């Protein structure tokens, strides 16, 4: 009996599993920590290693793109089909700092396989999830007999994601013509749980600011001047207290303009997930859930915008008392944004609102950092359907839907290239991103290979360009 396409993919992966893992271990040994200047040569070495491996995989075009910071790797493998869609895979090859004394049970850059898990910094975030595409495309070719992928396949693997991607958007804008794509696949995310395969459909955006309020030109005696001159610390406290209304909604006028509301179907899909709020609170190290009224915890985290106080200070902080009116106070705020919100408009609304909160006699300075836009893919998008089918074939289970509450540079690709962003990731919460003993489940990693192998043919079959 001849093999089915799915069994042919699995057979190929099994036969090449050992070499694939040996290569990944070699890459994980490179401490490509973009945040630490002493590892700058290692980040370059990581990019060069990946470029060489992509050439070995079969990509006819592989380039290392320099930036003012760390290098990115670009690869391209055209399809022979003129009607094939073009797909860009995004990931990153830099990693978070790690040292044995941080609490690791083994050396973070000496990969260790134990109990079906590969432990190393970058195993899940993100080298493992980038690298599964190399074996995935080879399995796709072997199972279909093709000499080139069924789609026009591109990869962009950046080197500064763990440092905030400071040069990423400029790189995408500069190279937009080379990066043009019908869809972007992000493999820098995860699943709900090992036994619950999921596909993420969106990420929130992010805007951040620091507000500094200045009152007297110096600290002054509270007995001589208290109650008679404005106190910037009191002004900061009043501003923070006014940030939300009694229902947990952000009280900045215009903040919710354009917000794409959850549909009944999306709410139902979220509700299907086996969410244990008590366990979630344990993970959050918190004693109660809290937030905007009328929404579940998952809906608040994934699909509602937020305003959070990240830090607040002013005046005397030492032991005992110091009876002063402080000369200044500050607060740091962050805003998670959802589909439909414009970071520039949010900044304008926040600036206007803050100006109205500050009392006479208090001078205000506001600095906003660079913003990240939200991204959301409609549930009926053909590329999303392909990702779901590919995951379903790999896991042989129903695939459910999530979103990400955090933010990332994927939205820049959507914004600049005008292409929908899809997420194909196999990491699970226990993998410990950014934490000691980061690991990846090897069985899930190979499921990622399998899903990648199925995806290119499914996209080409169901999302073809008109001749």
From TrEMBL:
InterPro entries: Bact_exopeptidase_dim_dom (IPR036264), Cyt/Met_Dipeptidase (IPR051458), Peptidase_M20 (IPR002933), Peptidase_M20_dimer (IPR011650)
Record has Electron transport as a keyword: no
Keywords for this protein: Hydrolase, Metal-binding, Protease
Top-level taxonomic group: Bacteria
Cross-referenced Pfam families: M20_dimer, Peptidase_M20
Domain Peptidase M20 dimerisation, chain residue ranges per copy: 202-360
UniProt-listed PANTHER family: BETA-ALA-HIS DIPEPTIDASE, SUCCINYL-DIAMINOPIMELATE DESUCCINYLASE
Name used for this protein in its record: Peptidase M20
The organism's taxonomic lineage, starting at the top: Bacteria, Bacillati, Actinomycetota, Actinomycetes, Kitasatosporales
